[in-house]
Fold this sequence. Notes:
mainly alpha
Amino acid sequence: MSSQQTLDQTAKNKLAMLVTQLGATVDQAIEDMEPREIDFILSNFAKYLTYDLKRNFEDARETNLKESPFDAIINDNLNLDN
């Protein structure tokens, strides 16, 4: 199995787990609400009932591009943590 196939399968598995966990969390939160709360939320906040996973992944990519594993070494050598 090539490295790309391994990355593809690993990424798909982790994304599937994330979506499953998010779905379970949302389902549990809604289950804990009263019907009138659900109706109120739908009536007053429907436009806010979105969650943008793409935004989270883009934020993580940006952070990873800005932070280097060498930053800790460099900062320690410069005594910036003290």
